[in-house]
Amino acid sequence: MEGAFSVRRFVRAVVAFVAVLVIGTVGFHSLTDEGWITSLYRAVITTTLTGLDKRPEEESAQIFTIFVLFSGVAIFLYLAGVIVEAIARGVLTGIWAERRRRRMIEELRDHYIICGYGRVGRRVAQEFREAGVPYIVLDFNPEVLEIARERGDLYVEGSGTNDADLTAAGLPRARGLVAASDSDVDNLYIVVSARSVRPDLLVVARASNDDAATKMRRAGADRVVQPYQTAGQEMAKLVLRPQVAAFLDIVTSAGGPDLSLEEIEVTEACGHCGKSIRELRVRHDTGALIIALRKRDGTFDTTPSPDTVLEDGDVLIAVGTEDELRGLEEMFKPREEAVAS
Questions:
Q1: Whether pLDDT at 282 is above 60
Q2: d(Cα 128, Cα 151) in Å, to the nearest integer?
Q3: Which DSSP string do the residues of 154-203 spell out, in sequence order?
Q4: Rounded to an integer, what distance in angstroms lies between the CA atom of residue 275 and that of residue 155?
Q5: In total, how many domains does the chain have?
Q6: Is residue 101 scored above 50 in pLDDT?
Q7: Could you give the CA distance from residue 81 to residue 332 in angstroms, rounded to a whole number?
Q8: Which is deepest, 3, 110, 211, 219, by most CB within 10 Å?
Q9: Quick one: DSSP state of residue 268?
Q10: Residue 1 maps to a domain
């Protein structure tokens, strides 16, 4: 790009400097009958402008010394200009920032990959950011990547349809992936690529219509969202059931002032499998309310009774304040972790 810092210019200056040293060494050796080491020493102190031990007796050697001196001055001025330009353009700090970014990406674990950083992708990132969930953006558009950079989001330049780019975004270590591209075709390829590498990965995809949504589910997407259809449904709810919509808005917002929804998996390690909700005194001990239960086979119990027995692999859907939900998480945390904490 015009005006950008050029590594080639810097390398060219270094090569010229080495060339002057070689020419100077050979020249002094030929003109003064000095040894190779002495000639190299004279070439170094002359080229680097550190001075001379003594003036050469031969006039030809003196003229050659002047040539080497001027060559050294020219090269150092050129090098100084390149270095100043690098600092002025932020190249050195940019290199450091790039290394830091790559290191942070390599350290990511149990994160989410957002493929596509358009309006939908940016909204997803905002929700993740407010919830304190680790995530990384994968997109190839320089303009949207600049937005990600300004917002402090980790990102990889590339496409979710490319296996290598997905790997660079940490797909083998990720917890989930959001295919949020504007293109149904791209999202379909993203789902197929991600699912082929990680059969256990949670994949949520965006679709523009029912036909695309059906194909994405067949390709392996766990959930498919149709923004236009969802927007229409939400608008209808606001008109037909405003109070219900207001309540759902509160409990589903990551930044809700009072209540929030949370899902917690029941495992053997927590020691509560085989016990009922009544036995555990969930409401009494934590204050949180279990409003639904997803069984291991994928079915939902939308009105679990206090006598419902919890099993390994069940997922609790609970509502409560931040402190109440934290207490519920502590209750179902593996015993080893609970003791350690």
A1: yes
A2: 13
A3: -EEES-TT-HHHHHHTTGGG-SEEEE--S-HHHHHHHHHHHHHH-TT-EE
A4: 44
A5: 3
A6: yes
A7: 63
A8: 219
A9: G
A10: no
